[in-house]
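agent: user wants the structure for Erd1 from Schizosaccharomyces octosporus. delegating to structure tool.
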Amino acid sequence: MVDLNNLMDYMPLILRLYFLVLFGLYSFTFALWLLYAYRVDVFALLNNPLPVNRLNQHQAPLYRLTYKLSVIGTFLFIAAEIIYMLTESSEMSYIPVVIFCVIIFMPLRKLQYFQRKVFMRQCLRISTGNYAVEYKFPDIIFSDLLTSYSRVIADLWLAGAILIYTVSEPSRSRRKELENEAIMSLIAAYPYAIRFRQCLIERAHADNETARFWSTMNAIKYLTAFPAIFLGIVGNKRMTFMWFLWNASSAINSTYSFWWDVSQDWNLDFLKDPLNNKSWKFQTRRPFPVAVYIFFSALDFVLRMSWVVRVLSEKHTSLFATDFGIFLMQFLEVFRRCIWVFFRIEAEASKTMAYLTVQGANDDVLSHPE
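agent: tool returned. relaying tokens verbatim.
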């Protein structure tokens, strides 16, 4: 039987994390392309300030900009893999990753400078749990995206620790010793703390009681993530009270988050009143049939509940404690978030009617599904 964990020998930790970033970037590019194909006005929804004539958006769609960075990142990833395979030195594979980071954050007026400048300002803005009123929607989208990358961000700390130790003592590997669960849990909790604070700010600026109520409920959703994160530090021993508490907190957070994904973020009524036939029909224009939303809602539920692998027998859970298992779970969460981003933007377009009007174009894709 093939040992799947051996596959990770061909991809050190830093490249696994880099792969997940590239996958997210390509997924976002594909989402933008598909949204553009259904003439969703992504420029308006994301408040993109690029100096592009809005009348000529069909000649310069936003997805082409993210695609360029994706391609550059891919070439650097291939270079990093080649370096690693030739030198068998994981520290050398950090160089292309650092180059990609420099390309994104460099202040030179090259390579989509305006887009990168907006991204850099956004990173600084949300790092303290804030958001700009005029950029509220894209700021929240990116902040939510970070929650799915929380474990990836935590592993970046581990990758840095491994690099420092490898350089100082290349003859040994102390990966397991360097995995400080307390520090990594604090890092993983930070994106949720950002969203929690944003919800509190949103609640403070709400115009009415209804808006304040839903902002509070959203804040509670992110608050339920903290027990699911921190109880894992002390709840690893099976069939103990803390283990049951850890799984219970994960169940509460996952169920609550799934309901919020479908009912609030995607603006679907399936779970609000499932016995009402009107809940299974759209009251506003949506580009896809109802069956598509049902399928991806079910997929979102399955991926949200991926934590249940912890309650399986030790024979089956051992895989998820390996490098391959950890990478697989991180990949599935990033994949789930990419689906969420697409339908979140699409739902916002349906609420605000942010659709492009192209004269002479076929409007069949915008027809109201039955």
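agent: one observation worth passing along. The first helix runs from residue 13 to 37.
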